[in-house]
Design brief:
The protein has 672 residues and is an alpha+beta fold. The protein contains 24 helices and 16 strands. It folds into four domains: 68 residues, no CATH class; 107 residues, no CATH class; 255 residues, no CATH class; 133 residues, no CATH class. Helices cover 40% and strands 14% of the residues. It comes from Plakobranchus ocellatus.
C-alpha cells in the first residue's frame, strides 16, 4: 500500500522469481519448497541435455558448488565429527571380497604388514607391482619361471636395508587346518607372529611361483577376451562354470523344516557366435537340474546338449573353443580329457582352461541373476520354488529373453536337465602327468595334443602352429607321452625355491663371505645349531629347514648337519606310559581291532592333522603329543639314512603295503 496524489491505491506485486524459459511440471499445492526446487532443477537439466556442451558445463558447476558446500560444512565441524565422517565413508566404499585366489592373497597380506614399516617410496600397492620386484620382465616366461640368472626372490632382500629384521610383527595367512572336530581339513585364516626376518623368509617361499601363476592367468584371460571380442565366422566360444547351488527356501515355513532344505544345481553357459548379419551374438543358457553331484559325467551331458544346440543354430559350424576353470572333478582330469577326445571325433574342438583360481567369468553373473530373482520372488510370496522344475518354470516365465525377429544379438534361455544319477565312465583312462601345467587341449585322430598355454594369433587360427607369434612363451603341440616326458624332466631340474637360476644353483654349494663366493665341503654344517637350544626348537627348526628344500641333495646336507647333535636329545626307551597317564580318551571303535594277545594295550584318540602316526608315537614315548614334530623329523632322517632300503623294498613288504592300503576296519585285524 502506498499513497500517491492523495489517493490510497493498491501497489502491484512484483514477481521476484527468476523467469524460466521452460515448462515446470504441475505439482500439488502442499509440496515443500525444497522438493519444488529439485523438480525445477530436474526439468532444467532435462532441457539442457539437448545441448551436450551446456549440459556438461552445468554438471561441472553443480559439482563445484557441492564441493564448496561440503568444504564450508567441514570448517564448522569438530575433529571428532570429521573422524566419524571419514569412517563412514570408508565403510561405504569397502567391497565384500570373496572367492579370491589363495596364491595371490597370502603374499599381499604380508606385503600389507611390511608397508607399515617401509618408507613411502618403497611401499607396494598392488600385486602387479610386487611381482615386478622379483623379475626382470614380467612378460618374459624365462623370468617368471625363475630360470633367469639376473632375478629371483633374493631381490626382496633389499628391503632389509629399510627394515629392522629383529622387530616383532603379526600377520595373517590362509592355510589348511585340521582338528579333532573337523572331518578332514579346511582353509581358514590364521594369525601368526614372529620377526620381520621370519616374515620375509615365508614371503620368499610364497613368491617363488607367484610370477608364473600371475603370468598364466593374465595370458589365458587375454586370449579369451581377444577371441570373444572378434568371433570368427563359423566359430563358437563356449564358457562353462558351475554356479553355487540354489537353496529352495520358502516363505512362512515352520521351524521343523529348517534342516530339510532342497537344493538345485545351476550350471550357466555363455555362448558367443556370429549372427547371420555378421555381428556377434551372445546366447546365455542356464542348465537347471536336481542332480547335486557336480561330476564330470554331468558336465559331459551338458556339453552334449550345448553342442547339439550350436549345430542347430549354426549349421556352418567350423570350430568350437570351450573355456572353463581347472576344477579336477569337473573339467580337468583324466575322465574329462577322455570326454574331450570323444567329442573331437564329432566336432572340431579346442579345450582351454583359465589360470588356476582365476576362473571367474560371465557365468557367475548369469547364475547370480537367476538365484537373486528367485529369492526375491519367494520373499514377496510371488512364487513357491521347491525343486528344479519349479525353478525352471519361474525362470522361463520371468527371466527368459527370446529372440524376436531374424536378428537378436542377446538371448537368455533356461534348460531343465533330468537327474540321471549316472556314474563316472572311462575309469580305465590314465592320468596325465603335469595336468596343472597344461591349459590347452586339441583332440585329434591320433590322440590328445597338449600345449602349456592357449594362443589365437593369425597363424594358430589358420592352423600354421609352427609359425605361431607367441613361440617365446607358448609351447608346440605335444602328444601326451612327449608332454609327460617334458614335465618330468623339468621336475628333476628344479632348483631351490629361493633360487631357480644358474646363479642361485652356484649359491646352493657355496656361501658369501666378505663379498667372495667360497666353495662348501661335504662336511660343511648347513644347519648351524645354536648352543643351549631347547629340544622342541631344535627339531622344529630342522624340520622347517628340510621342508624348505626343493631337491633331495639339500635334505641330505641338512641330515648330515643334524646327525652329530642327536645324541644330545636321547629318546626315553624305558618309559611305559599307561592310559591313565596320558589323559586321553580310549577309542572305542579301534579297541575292537586290537589283535588277540595284545589285550593289555588300549588305543586312544589323538589329534587329526593328516598324519596321526607321529602324534601316536609321541604319545607312546613322552605321554604327550607335543613332540610330534620331533618324531616327524626323526622319520625324515631315517628315510634319508636308509634310502637304499626304502627304494628297493623286498617284494614281501611291498605286497604287505599294497594289502594294507586296500583294507579298512576289522580287515586289518585279520591280517595281523
Amino acid at each position: 500500500m502506498h499513497i500517491f496524489s492523495g489517493l490510497l491505491t493498491e501497489r502491484p506485486k512484483r514477481d521476484t522469481r527468476r523467469k524460466l524459459d521452460f515448462e515446470i511440471p504441475e505439482t500439488p499445492q502442499h509440496i515443500s519448497r525444497q522438493v519444488q526446487n529439485k523438480l525445477n532443477r530436474a526439468a532444467y537439466k532435462a532441457r539442457l541435455k539437448t545441448n551436450p556442451a551446456a549440459y556438461e558445463a552445468y554438471n561441472q558447476l553443480d559439482a563445484q558448488r557441492a564441493r564448496e558446500r561440503r568444504q564450508r560444512k567441514k570448517q564448522t565441524m569438530t575433529e571428532e565429527e570429521l573422524q566419524q565422517l571419514r569412517e563412514k565413508g570408508r565403510a561405504r566404499q569397502r567391497a565384500y571380497r570373496q572367492c579370491l585366489c589363495e596364491v595371490c592373497l597370502n603374499p599381499m597380506l604380508k606385503v600389507k604388514v611390511l608397508n607399515k614399516k617401509l618408507p613411502e617410496n618403497e611401499r607396494v600397492d598392488s600385486l602387479k607391482d610386487f611381482v615386478r620386484l622379483t623379475v626382470c620382465d614380467a612378460n618374459n616366461l624365462v623370468c617368471v619361471s625363475r630360470e633367469c640368472s639376473n632375478c629371483g626372490v633374493w631381490m626382496l632382500d633389499k628391503w632389509k636395508n629399510s627394515l629392522n629384521v629383529d622387530d616383532n610383527v603379526e600377520w595373517t595367512k590362509w592355510e589348511s587346518i585340521a582338528g579333532v572336530k573337523l572331518k578332514g581339513t579346511r582353509i581358514d585364516l590364521r594369525r601368526k607372529d614372529g620377526t620381520v626376518e621370519e616374515l620375509l623368509a615365508e614371503l620368499k617361499v610364497e613368491t617363488s611361483k607367484l610370477p608364473l601363476h600371475d603370468f598364466v592367468q593374465n595370458w589365458q584371460l587375454k586370449q579369451y577376451s581377444k577371441l570373444c571380442a572378434s568371433v570368427l565366422d563359423g566359430w563358437a566360444i563356449v564358457t562353462l562354470d558351475f554356479s553355487e547351488n540354489y537353496l529352495c527356501e520358502k516363505q512362512d515355513q515352520p521351524q521343523s523344516s529348517y534342516y530339510g532344505y532342497m537344493q538345485v544345481t545351476v550350471h550357466p553357459c555363455v555362448l558367443y557366435y556370429n549372427c547371420s548379419c555378421g555381428d556377434r551374438k551372445t546366447d546365455n543358457v542356464t542348465i537347471i537340474t536336481d542332480e547335486l553331484n557336480h561330476s564330470s559325467a554331468l558336465v559331459e551331458q551338458i556339453v552334449h546338449h550345448v553342442m547339439n544346440y550350436l549345430q542347430e543354430k549354426l549349421p556352418s559350424l567350423k570350430k568350437v573353443v570351450i573355456f572353463s576353470d581347472g576344477c579336477a572333478s569337473q573339467y580337468k582330469s583324466k575322465i574329462p580329457f577322455a570326454h574331450t577326445l570323444k567329442l573331437g571325433e564329432i566336432y572340431n574342438v579346442e579345450r582351454c582352461y583359465f589360470g588356476p583360481w582365476h576362473g571367474k567369468n560371465h557365468c557367475d553373473a548369469l547364475g547370480g541373476i537367476l538365484k537373486q530373482a528367485a529369492t526375491r520372488a519367494v520373499k514377496a510370496r510371488q512364487s513357491v520354488i521347491q525343486n528344479a522344475t519349479d525353478l525352471h518354470r519361474f525362470a522361463s516365465e520371468t527371466l527368459s529373453i527370446l529372440g524376436v525377429g531374424k536378428c537378436s544379438h542377446l538371448t537368455r534361455r533356461f534348460w531343465l536337465l533330468e537327474a540321471t544319477h549316472g556314474k563316472e565312465r572311462d575309469s580305465c583312462s590314465v592320468p596325465i602327468y603335469g595336468t596343472r601345467q597344461l591349459h590347452s587341449l586339441l583332440p585329434t585322430a591320433d590322440g590328445l595334443f597338449i600345449r602349456n598355454l592357449s594362443c589365437f594369433c593369425q597363424h594358430c587360427i589358420a592352423g600354421h602352429f609352427g609359425a605361431c607369434d607367441s613361440q617365446h612363451c607358448v609351447s608346440e603341440w605335444k602328444s601326451v607321452r612327449e608332454w609327460e616326458k617334458l614335465c618330468k624332466s623339468k621336475g628333476k631340474l628344479q632348483r631351490q625355491i629361493v633360487a631357480g637360476s644358474e646363479r642361485n644353483s652356484i649359491l646352493n654349494n657355496a656361501f658369501i663371505e666378505d663379498g667372495t663366493v667360497c666353495e662348501l665341503g661335504d662336511d660343511y654344517n648347513v644347519f648351524p645349531v645354536n648352543p643351549g637350544v631347547s629340544r622342541g626348537d631344535f627339531f622344529r627348526e630342522a624340520l622347517n629347514a628340510m621342508a624348505a628344500c626343493s631337491i633331495f641333495a639339500d635334505i641330505e646336507k641338512i641330515v648330515r648337519s643334524v646327525l652329530p647333535h642327536l645324541d644330545n636329545y636321547p629318546l626315553p626307551v624305558d618309559i611305559w606310559p599307561t592310559v591313565f597317564d596320558c589323559g586321553h580318551a580310549v577309542d572305542k571303535t579301534a579297541l575292537s581291532y586290537i589283535p588277540s594277545g595284545l589285550e593289555h594295550l588300549y588305543p586312544v584318540c589323538v589329534e587329526v592333522d593328516g598324519n596321526c602316526m607321529p602324534r601316536s608315537i609321541s604319545l607312546s614315548l613322552f605321554s604327550s603329543q607335543d613332540f610330534h614334530e620331533e618324531i616327524r623329523c626323526r622319520i625324515c632322517i631315517d628315510s634319508v639314512i636308509n634310502k637304499d632300503h626304502y627304494l628297493n623294498l623286498p617284494q614281501k613288504e611291498l605286497d604287505m603295503l599294497c594289502t594294507l592300503s586296500e583294507c579298512q576296519g576289522a580287515t586289518v585285524k585279520e591280517i595281523f
